[in-house]
Write a structure and sequence with these properties.
ABC transporter substrate-binding protein; periplasm; signal; 409 residues; 2 domains; 7-stranded mixed beta sheet; SBP
């Protein structure tokens, strides 16, 4: 039996239906306030932010930098709650809704996107209609479809962008001279270099994204899959995808008898030189790993000639958050030019901003212009030349479940 992570299932099935917004009296009251009133309401309170906790540098940025601003400027205490998978938080809110906890939930904000956002919207579990209240909302380009739509689902005032990311590969230039530069080349390279490649088992986020790249390749391009889920098209492309991945399996690390259970586990395999290639949806992690000595200085990263998948990630306030005012202040701080620059610094996080930098002050624009990425990190401009869109969530869930049934077994 292959050792793969068990799929985390929601406790109820939610069909794809028209979106309904959850409007509570508390939310309506906050939406009717001016910004200064909201800030005063938030003073002295706490805000519970649930987010993926797998990267120490991100945790430190959130707890120390963002938490420090909230405490020093607004007397708000930030409680960072780290989770291994966002679906855990979605299930918390879902359980509270089923139990009738509609006013005093345990979650004030979630780092979220994609299928989890769609699930929250379909479950009527989202606080909406407030984004125009945030002073720093003017820095967001809502005319950009990649911002206004989260994996094909219109945002419509129900979440706030935080960062942008795009998938990239990494290799050690001292060990590997010519890494594969496309999915087609990678398939051949894996067979020519047995044991030197693997990928985390879906539903690990990065592992699932790698599988989607192969799915795009089997489909003849991402444009063949855009739009609502098509069962006939899925069946056709999935059969090709599972064959590619199953044919590749005997040439993987440990002959494909086991898969890493997380991207952190795959990172360790690369650091130990057990595999020759690594990847991550957040390329800044390559630089962080070089900086802290996990990877050698000879590591380099790159995109694929046939493109890599990119997305925008967001923060969302559940409908039953008891601290909506504090959550709004937190979101506004995250959108500020200062906070967006801080997390763009390679020695902090190195992620791409969700705001339009040219809308910030001249001082902040100069700070962004001064950023020099490490040699190990491929530039967002280079990656952006061949960026691929994410699919609607229904495609993604079907691909992940299909992998478990036909490849992971």
């Amino acid at each position: 039996m292959k050792k793969v992570m068990k799929w985390a299932l929601l406790s109820v099935a939610l069909s794809y239906a028209p979106i309904a917004y959850a409007d509570t009296a508390d939310g309506d009251a906050v939406n009717a306030m001016g910004w200064d009133e909201i800030v005063e309401m938030a003073r002295g309170s706490e805000v519970n932010w649930f987010l993926w906790g797998g990267a120490d540098n991100i945790n430190q940025y959130v707890s120390d930098y963002i938490g420090g601003i909230l405490k020093d400027q607004y007397d708000i205490t930030l409680n960072r709650v780290g989770v291994s998978d966002t679906v855990e938080v979605v299930n918390i809110v879902l359980g509270e809704r089923e139990a009738g906890v509609n006013d005093n939930g345990s979650v004030d904000m979630i780092w979220i996107n994609g299928e989890n956002f769609r699930t929250m919207m379909q479950g009527d579990m989202v606080y909406c209609g407030y984004t125009d209240i945030l002073p720093n909302n003017e820095l967001v380009n809502w005319d950009n479809p990649a911002i206004a739509n989260d994996f094909g689902v219109p945002v419509e005032g129900c979440e706030v962008p935080w960062s942008r990311a795009q998938f990239a590969f990494a290799y050690d230039s001292a060990r590997t001279e010519n890494p594969p530069k496309s999915i087609g080349e990678l398939i051949d390279w894996v067979k020519e270099n047995p044991g030197q490649f693997t990928y985390p088992a879906p539903p690990d986020f990065n592992g699932a994204v790698f599988v989607r790249h192969v799915f795009y390749y089997a489909a003849g391009g991402a444009d063949q899959l855009l739009g609502p889920f098509d069962q006939a098209k899925f069946d056709e492309v999935a059969a090709k995808t599972w064959k590619i991945l199953n044919d590749m399996e005997p040439y993987l690390w440990r002959e494909g008898q086991t898969y890493p259970t997380s991207i952190n586990a795959m990172q360790q395999l690369f650091a130990n030189q057990e595999v020759a290639l690594y990847f991550n949806y957040e390329p800044s992690q390559f630089g962080i790993a070089v900086q802290d000595g996990t990877f050698p200085e000879s590591v380099r990263s790159y995109g694929l000639t046939d493109g890599t998948i990119g997305n925008t990630n967001y923060t969302l306030i559940p409908y039953n958050s008891p601290n909506k005012a504090a959550a709004l202040v937190l979101q506004n701080v995250l959108l500020s030019g200062e906070a967006q620059y801080e997390k763009a610094r390679p020695d902090v996080w190195g992620t791409s901003p969700a705001i339009e930098v040219d809308r910030t002050s001249p001082e902040i624009q100069a700070e962004f212009a001064s950023i020099v990425q490490p040699e190990s990190v491929v530039s967002s401009e280079e990656l952006g030349k061949a960026a691929l869109p994410e699919l609607q969530a229904s495609w993604i869930s079907a691909i992940e479940q299909g992998w478990l049934e036909n490849v992971g077994r």
